[in-house]
Amino acid sequence: xxxxxxxxxxxxxxxxxxxxxxxxxxxxxxxxxxxxREFIFRNINDxxxxxxxxxxxxxMVWANHVFLGCRYDPVLLEKVSEMAEGIVVEDAPVFKTRDxxxxxxxxxxx
Length: 110
Known about the structure:
By secondary structure, this protein is mostly helical. It has one domain (1-109). The protein is built from six helices and no strands. The chain has helices at 3-12, 14-21, 30-43, 52-68, 74-83, 98-109. α3 (30-43) crosses α4.
């Protein structure tokens, strides 16, 4: 489902869209929420009640990884990456691990 498809889906499913809007955290920026909302809409058919909480948790794992650089178990990250396939996040931050930063500093000293 492309971003334009998500917008069309929202227009055609107003009741579901209103429900999904209640899942937005007060701390989410518009950019963050738009991406996480797309993640939810892309996967909602696979996680209907009583499994909706699991989808919301997975959406937060994905968003935290993309926007905050949080690290999780590789199997979990692979799962949410597959679920988010095709979602385009413009100007996503790039994070480096501590090891990558140290290696970069050591190379600069040479």
